[in-house]
Amino acid sequence: MPPLGLYIHVPFCSAICRYCNFNRGLFDEGLRQRYVEAVTAEIRGAPGRFGWRPGEARADTVFFGGGTPSLLEIADVAAIVGACREAFDVASGSEITLEANPESATSPFLEGLRAAGVNRLSLGVQSFRREELRRLGRIHDVAQARRAVAAARQAGFDNLSLDLMMWLPDQTVRQWLASVDAAMKLGPEHLSLYMLELYPNAPLREEMARAHWSLAPDDDAAEMYETAMARLDAAGFDQYEISNVARPGRASRHNLKYWTDGEWIGFGPGAHSTLAGSRWKNVSGTDEYVARVAAATPLETERRDLTAEERWQEAVITGLRLRAGISVVAMAESYGVDLDARFGPDLQRFQEAGVVERDGDRLRLTRRGMLLANEVLRVFI
Ligand code: SF4
After folding, report:
1. For strand 190-195 and strand 244-246, is the pairing parallel, antiparallel, or unpaired?
2. What is the DSSP string of 246-304?
3. How far apart are the CA of 80 and the centre of ligand 1, in A?
4. Distance 338 CA to ligand 1 centre (A)
5. Which of 113, 165, 245, 287 has its CA 20 to 30 A from that of 210?
6. pLDDT of residue 1
7. Which of 26, 68, 163 gets mutated to test ligand 1 (max ligand atoms within 8 A of its CB)?
8. Nearest-5° Cα angle at 41, 37 to 46
9. Binding-site residues, ligand 1, Cβ < 6 A
10. Nearest C-alpha to atom 8 of ligand 1 is from which residue?
């Protein structure tokens, strides 16, 4: 069995950003303590639940996501990493990532993280413009983001990722590119560039209407994406996925499991898992999660055994998110699906439109195709 990924969902934030649709709530000190007890118990209980001996199943990535994992205490992070090491054979050289927001990424905290075994930091910078951060409802400022990067380096993090968001309210192409340049200047090993997506009732929608902020036209959004990626190419980054670029050898090993048909177990409220052809999700509410762990009642909701059809669809859809694309021969061997026979006319049409390209056996999205990924990938469902 290839090594697993372990995902730890930390469901707290200091403030709720105006666009956020993740599973999170406002920080509460008492709930933090109960959450840490529950999540460490859930991790320790995993071997028994899956019929393994403690330390039998191998894992090579641990990822603290949220929410805002940097609101945990260092002792909490150490306890959670310790529980992972007790329950799983966490290989030496494993990638252990923690997502942090700049306002909580202080020097003592980052030094403590290193001592607890965290070796990759993902900073939610989002923008290098003060007005944009305010519009999003982020509580950090640009100086804090720069200080967090310097503090991370000083603490010994040599694998640093920065998140940026594009197509923000009233953002111009030039303003966006200035944030990309500012991020590159800080010398991260990895960058994630996301387009803002506004869910139907996002408070930011109302705010945009009130303040008369508009989104740049679609052509500008395309220019934002394509020009940023071209600048990152020129600076020696490798775009390995639709939204992610990295220095050679610094792609996120944990996130690659999601896109390469890997297996992972998620711990904490609302965490998703994929293992042995099944997919499930933990109960979302933190109070309910804590209560269920305490009562030893099942945490799972929405368990599904993936059908053969769902498995190949998923392999195609996630694989095409990667710049490397997919091997048509490997798809036929692993899933018995001949993509050319089944989707020949669609693939031909996409190639003619310049959104898909063929390189021998490999099929991949072009950069333009990555921009239109939702439309292209729909054909496989
Ligand atoms: S910090 Fe992240 S998880 Fe928390 S509210 Fe903002 S976007 Fe959502």
Report:
1. antiparallel
2. ESTT-S-HHHHHHHTT--EEEESTT-EEEETTEEEEE-S-HHHHHHHHHTT---EEEEE
3. 21
4. 41
5. 165
6. 81
7. 68
8. 155
9. 13, 16-17, 20, 22, 24, 66-68, 101
10. 20
Confidence label for 12 from pLDDT (cuts 50, 70 and 90): very high
In which residue are the tokens 């297996």 written?
Answer: 263
End-to-end CA distance of the chain: 28
13 CA from centroid of ligand 1 (Å): 6
pLDDT tens digits for range 239-264:
999 999 999 999 999 999 999 989 99
Residue 44 CA to ligand 1 center (angstroms) comes to 28
Q: Do 162 and 123 form a contact (C-beta atoms < 8 A)?
A: yes
Provide the token pair at 42: 């859930």
pTM above 0.70, yes or no: yes
**SS3 assignment, position 61:** strand
